[in-house]
């Protein structure tokens, strides 16, 4: 039993270390571009946190499919949720082209 107590925290730490780091990669004119923003919703963030930090979105799209996927549109990016948690933040093409 003591082996399990030592093994479980190590497994948890290993799992946290291997979590992906969020970045947006866009193909514009065939060239990949990474769009980095200091402040945008990140994977795993809860809806309430997104509302608190970024305010009310311009448009909310109803959830579709199973699992339910919904989208909130802000001025220059869209946030995709699976249930109440962020799975992706996508910067719209027209915004990234102007940079």
List the helices and strands and how they pair.
Blueprint: H1 2-17, E1 24-28, E2 31-35, H2 47-54, E3 59-64, E4 69-73, E5 77-82, E6 85-91, H3 93-97
Antiparallel strand pairs: 1-2, 3-4, 4-5, 5-6
Descriptive notes:
It is built from 3 helices and 6 strands. The mean pLDDT is 77. It has 99 residues and is α+β, with helices and mostly antiparallel strands. The strands form 2 sheets. It has a 4-stranded antiparallel β-sheet with strand order 3-4-5-6. A hairpin with a 2-residue loop joins strand 5 and strand 6. The protein has helices at 2-17, 47-54, 93-97, and strands at residues 24-28, 31-35, 59-64, 69-73, 77-82, 85-91. The chain has one domain.
Helical residues, percent: 25-40%
Tell the overall outline: elongated
Could you say how many structural domains there are in total? Answer: 1
Mean pLDDT: 77
Helix-strand string: HEEHEEEEH
How many strands, what sense, and barrel or not for the largest sheet? 4 strands, antiparallel
Going across the major beta sheet, what is the strand order? Answer: 3-4-5-6
For the termini, the CA-CA separation is 57 Å
Helices, by number, come to: 3
Rounded to an integer, what's the Rg over CA atoms? 17 Å
Kindly state the number of beta strands: 6
Q: Approximately what portion of the residues adopt beta-strand conformation? A: 25-35%
Which secondary-structure class do the elements indicate?
alpha+beta
